[in-house]
Amino acid sequence: MDSDLQLLIDKLRSGDTRALARAISTVENREPGSSELLKALFPHSGKARIIGLTGPPGAGKSTLVDHLARLYRRENRTVGIIAVDPTSPYTGGAILGDRIRMQEHFSDPGIYIRSMATRGSLGGLARTTADVATVLDASGRDLVMIETVGVGQDEVDIVRLADVTVVILVPGMGDDVQTIKAGIMEIADIFVINKSDHDGAERVEREIHALQSLAVRHDGWTPPIVKTVASEGTGVKELAAAISEYENYLQKENLALKKSAENWQERLVEMLRDAMLEKSRQQLGDGDLARFAAEVAEHKRDPYTLVEEISARVGKS
Ligand SMILES: Nc1nc2c(ncn2[C@@H]2O[C@H](COP(=O)(O)OP(=O)(O)OP(=O)(O)O)[C@@H](O)[C@H]2O)c(=O)[nH]1
Ligand SMILES: [Mg+2]
């Protein structure tokens, strides 16, 4: 292995946060050497507990993550946080909020926070987030928390890498619980109703119960519902307890490895798709794609044969 790379890995593994930051940037921006780095780090990963937290904009995710981080620090556990920034107009304030909160932790090397921009990720966001989590994991963090906004396919993909997924809802979402139900029922291991100081928490709880009665999870776990007031730190202890209870359940039922294998099956498909696409691109010369597209548009060429030809060449290379 490249000696610079080895040095970086040694530093990162010894807890050097600047090395950690550099490694994360390398991976996040897919700089040269990023796959070498990931290959070398992977064997050191797999020890951190990865917790995904997702929910609508402004639900209080960052506030909860912040409280959880403090709680885990009191237990002497080290924490890595990945905040996947929202692209929606809601973000301005929230990102600022995250930064301000981040500052409070700067004096504590036991908490490392990284904001990731979604812009330009071209659908590779889940992959990049997973790789950044692997770097944090390999650096020896006990816990990695990933905050993502919304509950859409992107979030489902992102939280797929988490050991525990917390879905945060708030009162007053109206039919939103219905709208996002397809996504959340699949991924939530724990529900949080934050802003329980507002009216309507019971209604959200009833809706979650109603949805739960419609679907039985194949692992037999019934996701608990934890009510919190994150801005006051209320219910955070209960949330942490629910998280460890689910972890214990996975261990006891021997489900941890099974869940991980299921997740890896999806991720391997994505990685293969990326790799194949990359190879296809390499097969094409500059401007080929634009020329082919024009030919197909003019019906001079059929796209089916074209794709078959290109992918056949990839198979041989
Ligand atoms: N009343 C009340 N306000 C809360 C509660 N939790 C968080 N807030 C406030 O809600 C606002 C948004 O909180 P954040 O933690 O930034 O929410 P977020 O989900 O991370 O927001 P995005 O990252 O933009 O999606 C802040 O002003 C918090 O102080 C709560 O339980 N009750
Ligand atoms: Mg936030």
Summed over residues and divided by their number, the pLDDT gives a mean of 85
Rg is: 22 Å
- Give the helix level as a range of percent: 55-70%
Strand content: 5-15%
Order of helices and strands: HHHEHEHEHEHEHHEHEHHHH
Low-confidence stretches: 87-97
The set of bound ligands, ions and cofactors reads: guanosine-5'-triphosphate, magnesium ion
**How far from one another are the termini?**
26 Å
**Overall geometric form:** globular
Give the biggest beta sheet: 7 strands, parallel
| Order of strands in the sheet with most strands | 3-2-4-1-5-6-7
Work out the number of β strands.
7
Secondary-structure class: alpha/beta
Number of helices: 14
Question: Can you walk me through this structure?
Answer:
This protein is α/β, with parallel strands linked by helices and 317 residues long. It has helices at residues 3-13, 17-28, 34-41, 61-74, 91-105, 125-138, 153-159, 176-179, 181-187, 201-214, 236-252, 256-283, 288-297, 303-316, and strands at 49-55, 79-84, 111-116, 143-149, 164-169, 190-193, 225-227. It has a seven-stranded parallel β-sheet, sandwiched between helices. The protein starts with a helix and ends with a helix. The model is unreliable at 87-97 (pLDDT under 50). The site of magnesium ion has 5 residues, from helix 4 and helix 5. Magnesium ion binds next to helix 4 and helix 5.
Q: What labels would you give this structure?
A:
single chain, 317 residues, alpha/beta, 12% strand, globular, binds guanosine-5'-triphosphate, binds magnesium ion
